[in-house]
Amino acid sequence: MTKHIKNLCLIFLSLLIVASSTFFSLNVYAAQIADEPVSTQSRSWNFTGYSLSGTASVDMANIAQAQNNKTQGQLGYTEAWCANFVSDCAKIAGQEKAIPFNGLVSSLYSAVLNAGGYTVSYAEQGDLVFYKNPNTGGLMHVGIMLNNTTAISGNYWLYNYSQVCTHKYTSYYDEYGTKCQAIFVRPNYQSNTPAVNGTWLTVNGSTFIAGSTVTFNLGANNANGYTIGIDKDGTRIITQGVGTNPSFVLNEPGNYSAYVTAGNSVSYQDSARVYFRVFRPENLGTDFYAVILNKNAWKPIGSTDDNNVTIQTEQGISSQLWKFERQSDSTYEIKNAKTGYNLDVYCCLSANGTNIQVCGDNNSTAQHWYISSENGGYVFIPKCAINSVMDLTGGSTTDGNNIQLYEYNGTAAQIFAIYGQDDVQLKSAVLSVTPGNSKTNTAFNWTKTYGESYYSLKIWNGKELVGEPYYIDSNIPQNTLTKEIQLQPGYYEAYVDAVNYFDCKKSNTVSFTVKPTVKTYIDKTKTSITLEWEQVLNAKSYKVNIYNKDTDELVLTKENIETTDCSFTLPNGSYYIVISSDNNVSSDKKDMIVNMNYAKAIIGDINYDGYITMEDVELLMQYIATGNYIDKRIADVNNDGKINTLDAYHLMAYVNKKIDSDIIGKEITLDSLLGDLNSDGKISINDVTELQMYISQSKDFSDEQKLLADYNQNGIIDVLDVTDIQQLIANS
Q1: Which of 577, 606, 602 lies closest to 591 in space, CA to CA?
Q2: Mean pLDDT, to the nearest integer, of 90-94?
Q3: Has this prediction a pTM greater than 0.85?
Q4: Dihedral through CA 134, CA 135, CA 138, CA 139, nearest 10?
Q5: What pLDDT is stored for residue 276 in this prediction?
Q6: Please, are residues 84 and 43 in contact by the beta-carbon 8 Å criterion?
Q7: How far apart are CA 301 and CA 414, in angstroms?
Q8: Could you tell me whether strands 322-326 and 288-294 are parallel, antiparallel, or unpaired per DSSP bridges?
Q9: Please, are residues 723 and 731 in contact by the beta-carbon 8 Å criterion?
Q10: Is the pLDDT reported for residue 675 higher than 60?
Q11: Are 348 and 482 in contact (CB under 8 A)?
Q12: Predicted local distance difference test score (pLDDT) of residue 615
């Protein structure tokens, strides 16, 4: 019995040993023994399969997880090695300051805390987890947290192998099956990432059209992320994470700036700002005329004779007027109204100071201009140099200062007004005419219009546009508003055109008559009257009407006169004469007094018509020039006893009312009758006999008799005078 009991006890003890051995070998969370290393071992060279991000907590987890399921033999450790495993992970991650190398768990715990680590209640990736025996208070094991619930550690016994293993952080037991308490420690990880530096940003232009794509290039040293900030007119409109070549479509015009912030896990750095502007091309319409004025000086730009463009004092002429033609690309061709040439950037260049000129249309980008609103005016942007604008050289507004290309700066030198109101359009002038005569020019005057290159005056003899013009002057300079022309008597119609390269505006049509001048010659010796008048253009015949001045009664008519003179007799009296042509041109009234009493005369009335006019001046000058006889009693108007040019000038001054005279206009009684050679107070056959004796040299005459003997006043005493006196006696 005792023997059986003894055997049963031996069997029970064996089963107990086997059961205990089985329990500890099958429990996946149990440790074989506490980690008590003999010495510190590093086997980091046997670690494989990891990559480093530069973030310490991430790298610690990645390095450890890459070794998962590797055994103690594979890694080369020869002692309890959980602390060595953590230390090697820290060594590879470059975190030996935060996790000083230790082979003993308790020493490692103290070293991590001394390096600035600290315990935490909740775990994060990269935290260390230490396991404390609740009975002894000793630290039994250490691992690395992969996340807030899962740990990984070395020297973890699983299926009788010491290996690297992932496990719930709550699942660790000592060799006696006691569950250990987890303590989380967050090491004072040091950054391995260098600070960001050298951050830069560029933009692919300084001026953009609204709706176009703006592209940036950027970069920095040691950065792993970028954020761009874009401001419009000082207000933030975009804050966005970007790559190194971001693009944005910007639709709103304005002044923009941008910068980029480059960063990594340890630092960030801002770039310098870049500045640019976005404009929206204006649509002002098309095919309109306007003046381009510098807004500050309110002075226009205009072309010059050598096709340059300068700032000028406003003259209202075509070289300062521009025609705007909108193109399909939202630009304008801007054409000068004088030449038709386009506003042009010299040679399509873009450098500051490039000349702006006018040039024939070549459809190039140098002649296509964007117009953008700016500071209450407009800037002119050539398509060939979109970052630059039209500019006053040096900002000067002095007449003749050159217009150039310059990069946009928003100054007053670059801001222009486009003035296209009604008062700067080419319009029809208003023409007026003051007809002249044989002595004075016909004066044409017209109102100023705007934007003309020149004026063209056209005159027809008769109705306008019927046949060819009688007179054309197509080269009357701009701003010239009058023209004087000597015209032959006749009927005319005229108008003036205001002309520039693009347009021609016709004035009103003015009809007018240049009237013929009528001259009268009264021959008292023959009691006859002779009329002479100027030829009327295209007239073939004339009619003379003579009216009683006091009653307006027609007293004499002569028709179908094909010459420009006629003679007739009239009784003494006051008359007026009107000459009219067969093409309806009439003279002014010509007054005439007939007084055939030779004993009466008026000093200065050379033609004896009862009036002192320019006709008398002309007759006096004619007599002086030819040396013909003239009665000095009426011709010596300055009373110096001589008949010469002084008398003509004196008489002209009197007619023009420049002087008064007590002599001129005075009626006098002549001492002798013309032809009364024997001074008996009458003209008879006795006077004829006296004259015949003188002609035959049978008798001599005194000077006074010689004056009276030239009866026909032709300056010669001959038989013609005898005949005229005989006819006078016969008529009497």
Answers
A1: 577
A2: 93
A3: no
A4: -40
A5: 95
A6: yes
A7: 12
A8: antiparallel
A9: no
A10: yes
A11: no
A12: 86
Which runs of consecutive H residues, i.e. helices, occur in 27-78? 56-66, 72-75
d(CA 623, CA 22): 169
| Intra-chain end-to-end CA distance of the chain, in Å | 220
Q: How confident is the model at residue 708 (pLDDT cuts 50, 70, 90)?
A: confident
pLDDT score of 628:
64
In angstroms, the CA 30 to CA 37 distance is 18
Token pair recorded at residue 234: 């000082």
The helix/strand count (H/E) of the chain reads as: 11, 44
Residue 688: CA count within 13 A, CB half-sphere = 13
39: pLDDT confidence band, cut at 50, 70 and 90?
low
Both tokens of 352, joined, read 């500051």
Q: What is the DSSP letter of 486?
A: -
Q: Report phi then psi at 390, rounded to 5.
A: -70, 140
What secondary structure letter does DSSP report for 75? H
Q: Which residue's entry shows tokens 């040019």?
A: 645
The amino acid that residue 188 corresponds to is: N
Kindly list the distances between the CA atom of residue 461 and the CA atoms of 65, 440, 458, 536, in Å, as whole numbers in the listed order: 115, 18, 10, 11
pLDDT for 527 equals 60
Q: Which of 339, 387, 347 is nearest to 365 (CA)?
A: 347
Specify which residues 294 forms β-bridges with.
299, 416
**pLDDT, tens digit, for every residue of 157-216?**
887 889 999 999 987 887 788 899 999 999 999 877 788 999 999 999 999 999 999 999
Highest-confidence range of 5-9, 50-54, 726-730, by mean pLDDT?
50-54
Write out the E strands in 363-402.
369-374, 377-382, 388-392
Q: Where in 233-362 does DSSP place strands (E)?
A: 235-242, 247-249, 254-263, 268-270, 274-279, 288-294, 299-303, 309-311, 322-326, 332-336, 342-345, 356-359
pLDDT at 90 over 90: yes
Q: Which range (106-115, 126-135, 231-240, 615-624) has the least confidence? A: 615-624
The HSE-up count of residue 606 (CA atoms within 13 Å, CB side) is: 26
Average pLDDT of every residue of the chain: 89
Query: Is the Cβ–Cβ distance between 418 and 424 less than 8 Å?
Result: no
Is the Cα torsion angle 297, 302, 306, 308 positive or negative in sign?
A: positive
Scanning the structure block, which residue is given the tokens 């008590």? 36
Q: How far is the C-alpha of 307 from the C-alpha of 26, rounded, in Å?
A: 104
Sign of CA dihedral 38, 43, 44, 49: negative
Within 10 angstroms of residue 628's Cβ, the number of other Cβ atoms is 14
Amino acid (one-letter) located at 184 = F
* Amino acid residing at 594: V
Give me the phi and psi of 672, to 5 degrees please: -135, 150
Strand boundaries in 159-196, DSSP class E: 161-168, 181-186
C-alpha pair distances (Å), 282 with each of 64, 206, 662: 66, 19, 80
Which parts of 661-731 are beta strand (E)?
A: 667-669
Amino acid at 596: M
Cβ atoms of 171 and 158 closer than 8 Å: no
Parallel, antiparallel or unpaired: strands 207-209 and 274-279: parallel
Neighbour-count burial for 12-35, b at 16+ CB within 10 Å, e otherwise: eeeeeeeeeeeebeeeebbbeebb
The number of angstroms, rounded, from the C-alpha of 550 to the middle of its chain's C-alpha atoms is 71
pLDDT above 80 for 591:
yes
Q: Which residues of 136-171 are buried (b: 16+ CB within 10 A; e: fewer)?
A: eeebbbbbbbbeeebbbbbbbbbeeebbbbbbebee
SS3 11: helix
Percentage with pLDDT > 70 across the chain: 92
Contact at 8 Å (CB) between 399 and 197?
no
pLDDT of 703 over the 80 cut: no
